[in-house]
Specification:
The structure is a single chain. Helices cover about 40% and strands about 15% of the residues. The radius of gyration is 30 Å and the shape is elongated. The longest helix is centred in the last third of the chain and has 21 residues. The mean pLDDT is about 90. It folds into two domains: about 45 residues, no CATH class; about 180 residues, no CATH class. The strands form six sheets. It has a three-stranded mixed β-sheet. A hairpin with a 3-residue loop joins strand 7 and strand 8. By secondary structure, the chain is of the alpha+beta class. Bound molecules: zinc ion (4 copies). The site of one zinc ion (ZN) has 8 residues, from helix 2. The site of one zinc ion (ZN) has 7 residues, from helix 3.
């Protein structure tokens, strides 16, 4: 029978006496009683080191924790397993860098390569993938123009864009200020569209991903067409017709998001803005068991009826 020594005092573990065993080594009962223990694994060790947010940690746990193979995308330092970190785009960012970072308004990533007045910071991942005031957006609209025709809409082709501060767009759509502070686009979308049609112009926030733009633009092109058909300047009014028309336009945006297979945007449109019209839910429920054609006939008939009654 082999006699193993105690890992702590290095004396032989007395025969017949129980001992503590972990990490492949033994510790005698005496050492086990008197040696401070690791916060993480309870191992008795004289080589404990204090880790912030974790406490005294033994050498075995330290080895396991340090070797994560993860490093910070921004400062390149190793990210130990005990430290929390931010992860997105297959990148990890350490706590320290995160604390100092300017975060992207569009996606929250903690690094900024551009600051846009009236919008916020933009990260490198969003930077090359967003639309902005210097771009000609009309060619992007072609695929949705064709689809809008199928939904029996004839939206304007001479389109005027107004790029504005997002606070202004929010103000156009909310009667009262939001209950929560808005720091990022996803929070903004809880309350507001990023594109809104008003008096012959399309107002939009200064940067957004093309996918988001296309879905919302589809809804607002439908809204513009309804304004044109029924002689309105916008759909922000209080009558049941306005509510129905807003619900319909929202359904158009939601449906086109589905056609284009923009799952993230479609999911957002099914939940946000929080104050979206009930009529949208009805059209959405219908589209689960009816063909688009039937809903189009029904939707336009309802709009015409409501216009007669309420406008
Ligand atoms: Zn011992
Ligand atoms: Zn330990
Ligand atoms: Zn870092
Ligand atoms: Zn971003």
């Amino acid at each position: 029978m082999t006699q193993e020594n105690c890992y702590v005092c290095e004396n032989p573990v007395p025969e017949g006496q129980s001992f503590y065993e972990d990490h492949g080594v033994k510790v005698c009962l005496n050492c086990f009683r008197t040696t401070p223990r690791c916060k993480k694994c309870k191992f008795p060790s004289n080589a404990l080191e204090i880790y912030p947010g974790l406490g005294a940690v033994c050498e075995f746990c330290r080895d396991a924790m340090e070797d994560t193979g993860m490093s910070c995308y921004l400062c390149s330092k190793n990210i130990p397993a005990w430290m929390s970190y931010y992860a997105d785009y297959d990148k990890t960012v350490c706590q320290e860098c995160f604390a100092e970072a300017k975060r992207c308004f569009l996606c929250r990533f903690p690094h900024s390569v551009e600051s846009v007045k009236g919008l916020g910071h933009i990260c490198e991942f969003c930077h090359d993938d967003v639309i902005g005031p210097e771009m000609d957006l009309v060619p992007f609209l072609q695929p949705i123009q064709a689809f809008l025709k199928k939904l029996r809409h004839n939206p304007p082709t001479d389109i005027k864009f107004q790029w504005v501060d997002w606070h202004l767009i929010l103000g156009m759509q909310m009667k009262e200020p939001p209950q929560f502070k808005i720091n990022f686009l996803d929070e903004f979308l809880h309350y507001s569209y990023p594109v809104i049609y008003l008096k012959g112009q399309f107002y939009l926030i200064k940067r957004m991903r093309r996918q988001l733009f296309l879905c919302h633009m589809a809804g607002q092109l439908a809204a513009a067409d309804l304004c044109d058909q029924y002689g309105l300047q916008h759909l922000q009014g209080e009558t049941p017709f306005h509510a129905l028309a807003r619900g319909w336009s929202h359904w158009v945006a939601y449906t086109i998001a589905g056609v284009l297979k923009y799952q993230t945007e479609q999911k957002q449109l099914s939940r946000w803005p929080e104050a979206r019209e009930e009529e949208f839910q009805k059209f959405k429920a219908m589209s689960e068991f009816r063909k688009a054609k039937e809903i189009v006939v029904y939707g336009h008939r309802m709009l015409a009826d409501y216009a007669k009654k309420y406008l």
